[in-house]
Amino acid sequence: MVDAAELRRACAAAIDGYGGGYFHGRDWLRAAFLEVPREHFVPDRVWWPSRQDGRYPLLDRTERPRQWLKAVYRPLAALITQIDDGRVRPEDGPAADGCFTSSVSCSAVIVDMLHHLDPQPHERVLEIGTGSGYTTALLAQRVGAPGIVTVEIDPDLARRAADNLGALGLAPRTVVGDGEGGYAAAAPYDRILSTAAVRSVPAAWPRQVRTGGVIVTPIDTPYHTDALLKLVCDGHGNATGHLIKPVTFMKTRAQRPRRSYGELGWPGWSEHRVTVGADGQRIRTEGR
Ligand SMILES: C[S@@+](CC[C@H](N)C(=O)[O-])C[C@H]1O[C@@H](n2cnc3c(N)ncnc32)[C@H](O)[C@@H]1O
Prior knowledge:
Number of domains: 2
CATH superfamily of the largest domain: Vaccinia Virus protein VP39
Helix content: 10-25%
Bound molecules: S-adenosylmethionine
Order of helices and strands: HHEEHEEHEHEHEEHEEEEE
């Protein structure tokens, strides 16, 4: 029988092999990853995120426990827990089509996001997109569950996540609602982490973060990928920051429809000025 703790250790080793070591030498992050049983947050039936023979395969813990557990600890895979807001059901088997609407996030990406978020012990953190509660549990290892407010728009997912967390003795404030509004009742926060992508960062987020506090969120870009965005807040509702790297995430519910990139503030293609010379190539954005 494959042992979950053994697979978790192997997964941690693989994660540390990516991009110069995704734990970035942060001992707390590695310890948190090794402490949290990811399998506890994964439903018995989940979809694998890549098509095989035209369909997304269903992984069934009861029928094939070994295959299911190995998938839980594949470092670069998110496991799909919901399609089309629950209209496609795991009982129906492999999925031919549909839009992924919730998952247990990819381990390597979550570890990297937590590194960039850089939460400190006893800080107050707002998480948007509770999903299964797995990311919340990792965060709780660092800041402590009482410091976390986690918001999930889907009531069934929120309830399941609260149960999963509770079974491990973790009781963050779990809120059912639209996280684009943040959660003003418990503001100000030291940090906000969103594991749902936005096209436009909601104005409520920097309004609810203290001076010098940080927001980490995936944002849609015109470059055919989302990117990880890190913002530092000024305590007056403004935030400034930069893109870190490409990632792929589900959009927040209200931001699923496409919008014009010009309207969202992105530079147009012709604003990228390219210079080529003996020193090589440079690309800058003009007029911004
Ligand atoms: C990629 S999943 C998060 C997975 C989570 N990090 C985990 O590891 O289990 C994104 C989640 O964001 C939720 N979501 C989408 N729009 C939201 C919104 N406006 N407010 C709160 N949650 C939202 C979705 O229902 C989904 O569960």
